[in-house]
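Troubleshooting entry. Yesterday's outputs looked truncated, so today I'm pasting the complete records for two proteins to confirm everything comes through intact. If either block looks cut off, that's the bug. Protein one:
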Amino acid sequence: MEINLASAFFMGLAGSGHCLAMCGGVASSLQLAQDKQHPLTVAFLYNLGRLLSYATAGTLVALLGTSFAKQNTSFALGLSYLSGIFMLLVGLYIMRFVSTLNWLEKLGNFVVWQRVVKLNKYILPIDTKKKALAYGALWGWLPCGLVYSALVWSLQASSPLYGALTMVAFALGTFPALIVAGQSAQVLNQFLNHPVTRVILGNLFVWYGFYLIIVTTNKLVL
């Protein structure tokens, strides 16, 4: 089942409220701390760094997925089911009815982030464009349930390139919120985190998850 890049983009856009909560403070402080670089330039480089890390992770995950899926049809179908289940979890996560992805973030913190964050000492203070890019690349590995859910999609990508593109589309969806962080982010944050907005966006993911599960089941029956 091929992944729709537009869906990955929308997933990032819909999860922007969560991104603002996790990374908005970092992006905002980076902009305010600069006296030599334009704030928007710093914000763009930071988010470009995130995008590059997401693309790298998507490539690696898709490489792993395609290696096993080509050898085992049941594994490929299992990935499709997993994608559907994670869409349900993402929907509930965005609606904040239950903390469906917190366990995944804790696992990512233990396995990856505790080691990656130590590289901060080689980048701080952020006083050049290269450091802003590197800092964004570092924060791209911050444990995030939405990012991990997008990576589950990358697992069933048809090629490593498409896995990278899936994560690029997801990252681009998060760009608008984090690019304006520290400027008009407060208004955007209020809109994205409004209960009605969260319920509407969350329901879209829940129903899309059901759709993926139904399609996969039909393939299994046929």
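Protein two, checking that the full record survives here as well:
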Amino acid sequence: MFGVDLADQKRMQYSTCRKAKKWYKYLFWFCFDLAVVNSLICMQESPNHQIKTKKGKSIKKTQLQFRMALAQQMIGGYRGSRKRKIPSVVDNCGSAHWPIQFPKPSRCKGCTKAGRRHEVSIGCRECNITLCIKHDCFYKYHKEMLE
């Protein structure tokens, strides 16, 4: 009973269980917690995973340290994709998107997409991006946005 009670105590210390109306969801989180605790116990018993202090004394890794390292390994190098800001839709009279003069020139977004380098200081006030009128980027961008 000692091992089972100790495992249950460790499992409840940092539980990931959530209330669920479906029994299989609760079972999944229970099994997940059980697997994490079992791997923690195996790691603590393994002589290859002991942490050494400067004086040579071995210390067992805490459950919090183990769970943080496990989460970091599970996430890995994943980076969530940034969602683009959806431009506001033009109202009925089209007054929302008008070209304005920006104080500082920068690259035209339409020309950059087309592979040209063209710096302008004109752009859309509502979208807050620079678009040139010379290559009709302003019209193409907003036409593409509304489709």
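Both blocks look complete. Sanity check on protein two: The CA atoms of residues 73 and 90 lie 45 Å apart.
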